[in-house]
Write a structure and sequence with these properties.
A hairpin with a 2-residue loop joins strand 3 (about 20-25) and strand 4 (about 30-35). The protein starts with a strand and ends in a 7-residue tail after the last strand. Helices cover about 0% and strands about 35% of the residues. The chain is globular and about 70 Å long. It has one helix at about 160-165; strands at about 1-5, 15, 20-25, 30-35, 40, 45-50, 60-70, 85-90, 130-140, 145-150, 185, 190-200, 205, 215-220, 240, 240-245, 250-255, 260-265, 280. The protein has one helix and 19 strands. Strands 10-9-12-17-14-15 form a six-stranded mixed sheet, with no helix packed on it. A four-stranded antiparallel sheet has the order 1-6-3-4, with no helix packed on it.
């Protein structure tokens, strides 16, 4: 078994092992139904475990490659080598391959949206709370910043957890966490549907702490905003904690608010590491 982790702070990667098929069995700590492929795609922060069957002999060695996705760059610098190469060494007396494995295009690879969790946990429903994040970037305060719902994150002077523990019943009022914290207070055990509309010209990974979410819908690039109702959602959607939203498209995911704390989402954005929105899972009802 090989566990592959994309620890990059910007680029997504294609990964291919020369003349070896991979069987995906896990993503982001969640076991999946086995899925064979010869090419995988990992966004920043994503993890994947694959099984690789070794050759029955040690006649030669093989290369594997991690290739950065050029679509993640506005401009690829001429001196930037997009490929990183490693080796499966069967026989130290044999030479290493002179060339890395290649693939036909940067559009291949198994679509992780089609993975099925091993436990086949059914789609979370009905939705009791929907949160919509409209994500964009542009100049603000003399620098390029990312925004969620036209708000760019500013870290509060008082950490959210301290605020929640010190303001009593006001903890269920999002404004006490600060306007620029962009907080949303959830009821305990809410079935939460998060819609992310990406108005930026680049694709971006999104991460939520403390929960594995079900990826219900993900559009192709430049598909526009979410229409409001998932189209043929999977009966048992893939669960993970990092998902990529394509440029000019949207992603929809669901989770159960069963782990009360003060979790930022999305907390991982490669082009703006400080961008975060806060979903506050309340341990009691906010109803009055």
């Amino acid at each position: 078994m090989v566990r592959i982790i994309n620890v990059a702070n910007f680029a997504s990667f294609f990964v291919k092992f020369d003349q070896h098929e991979m069987t995906i069995i896990e993503v982001d700590g969640v076991y999946t139904v086995a899925q064979k492929t010869d090419l995988i795609y990992l966004s920043d922060g994503q993890r994947m475990s694959v099984l690789i069957t070794a050759k029955p002999n040690a006649d030669k060695n093989f290369a594997f490659v991690g290739a950065m996705d050029p679509a993640m760059f506005d401009h690829v610098p001429p001196a930037l080598n997009l490929n990183a190469t490693g080796y499966l060494v069967y026989n130290t007396a044999k030479p290493l391959p002179l060339e890395a494995p290649t693939f036909a295009s940067y559009n291949g690879g198994f679509d992780d949206f089609n993975l099925v969790p091993y436990d086949k946990l059914a789609l979370f429903k009905p939705v009791t709370r929907q949160v919509v994040f409209n994500v964009n970037s542009g100049p603000m305060y003399n620098q390029n910043r990312f925004t969620i719902n036209n708000i760019t994150y500013v870290e509060p002077k008082v950490p959210s957890l301290y605020t929640a523990l010190s303001v009593g019943k006001a903890a269920t009022n999002p404004i006490v966490y600060g306007y620029a914290a962009n907080a949303h207070v959830l009821d305990y055990m809410d079935t939460v549907e998060v819609v992310v509309n990406n108005f930026d010209t680049g694709g971006h990974p999104l991460h939520i702490h403390g929960h594995n979410f079900q990826v219900v819908q993900r559009s192709a690039a430049n598909a526009g905003v979410y229409g409001g109702t998932p189209i043929n959602p999977p009966a048992a959607p893939v669960r993970r904690d990092v998902v990529k939203v394509n440029a000019g498209g949207y992603v929809v995911f669901r989770f159960i608010a069963d782990n009360p704390d003060k979790y930022p989402v999305p907390s991982f954005y490669p082009q703006a590491p400080s961008l975060t929105d806060n979903l506050h899972a309340s341990g009691h009802s906010t109803a009055t």
